[in-house]
Design goal:
about 150 residues; mainly alpha; 2 domains; 4 helices
Length: about 150
């Protein structure tokens, strides 16, 4: 007797069981998707927080670097300017000129611009004539003082 009742409704029971199984799987899949989405949102928020923290630290480091550069610029004096001619070259130019060599020849031998050699010789001539004038005026002043005494 049970066979007469179960056999006709068995396909409906299998369909109902399959449908319940599908509903359970759909529900569990939805729950898992919801869980994964929430985890993704949390990790994205953590990443954004870490990125904003990193950008703040970067800005602080840039500010510290600017301050350090300013302190360094204030602490280190600039290097002294080098003169175009050192004392040895000046002496050589004057010595060569006294031996009668031309300005152009002196410039080519020493590897200097002609204008620098001319300027150096003019300054030397002015110093020599200024020193001679000073000596002659000191001698005149000394003779005037001797005459008054």
């Amino acid at each position: 007797m049970i066979e007469h009742i179960l056999i006709p409704i068995a396909p409906y029971l299998f369909i109902t069981g399959g449908l319940c199984l599908c509903m359970y799987m759909f529900y569990s899949l939805k729950c898992e998707l919801h869980y994964l989405q929430a985890r993704l949102d949390r990790s994205e928020a953590e990443r954004e927080t870490a990125a904003s923290d990193a950008s703040l630290q970067l800005e602080e480091m840039r500010a510290e670097l600017r301050q350090a550069e300013q302190r360094t610029a204030q602490l280190v004096p600039p290097p002294p300017l080098k003169s175009g001619l050192n004392v040895n070259v000046r002496t050589q130019v004057i010595r060569m000129f006294r031996h009668g060599e031309a300005e152009e020849l002196i410039a080519t031998k020493l590897g200097l611009p002609k204008n620098e050699v001319r300027l150096l010789l003019k300054v030397h001539k002015m110093a020599v004539t200024g020193t001679a004038a000073a000596h002659s005026s000191n001698g005149a002043a000394a003779s005037v003082e001797a005459g008054q005494a």
